[in-house]
Automatic annotation (TrEMBL):
Keywords: ATP-binding, Nucleotide-binding, Transport. GO terms for molecular function: ATP binding; ATP hydrolysis activity; L-isoleucine transmembrane transporter activity; L-phenylalanine transmembrane transporter activity; L-valine transmembrane transporter activity. Residues 4-240 form the ABC transporter domain. GO terms for cellular component: plasma membrane. It comes from the Bacteria. InterPro entries: ABC_AA/LPS_Transport, ABC_transporter-like_ATP-bd, BCA_ABC_TP_C, P-loop_NTPase. The keyword Nucleotide-binding applies. This is ABC transporter. One of its GO terms (biological process) is D-alanine transmembrane transport.
Amino acid sequence: MALLEIEDAAKAFGSLKAVDGVTLAVEAGRVQGIAGPNGSGKSTLFNLVTGIPFGPDRGTVRLEGRPIERLPAHEIAQAGIARTFQRETSFDGLTVFENALVGATFGGRRKASAPAREAAANALGLVGLAPATFPRLAGELSVFERKCLMLATACAMRPKLLLLDEPASGLTRPEIEASIGLIQGIAASGVTIVLIEHVLTFLMSLSDHLVILNGGRVLASGSPRSVIADPKVVEAYLGTRRPAA
């Protein structure tokens, strides 16, 4: 059984069909990439899975066979799904440790107990944020550190499934390489990962399986190398080549 199953999921905003009948599955232990042109429905699909800020208009989302598409966001998180966002998202007036503790206590499942504090500290260590950074305010961090903090806050929730939305955006090449190592470490710890990314080297380095969305639909799915070489995918990104005059 797949860890995550999405069946005929759809979301429209007026006449715009942001997600239009997407069906896909994510096997446990896999790092699955999702790519596609701007506006293809990638982030909206993450929203439908997590309920943040909305669920699907139609379709089913199942985690370990259990339908979750009508649950509130905190119950979906408690079921085992965490996510990050395209932009660095943190509580800038809280410390690094307090931000991670928000993830560890989201939904009130552990309160600010010793196990929650341990989960927060472990998550920060997993992404390379040393104890010396714990008292710093999140708003004082660099872009890369803020991305690491957002990742740690999600990991502190101890998810089964982690959804990463463009984790490499805005990073330098060395920071991208460091991020690849961090995500590989999280995957090695047993967390299943789905990631959206435009940086091709990032996707190819991490993904076991790749899905391409276009116009809110699945355009191609399979091994990363076969998908990238698919003529439909090349056309979606580059357009149809016109014959020479």
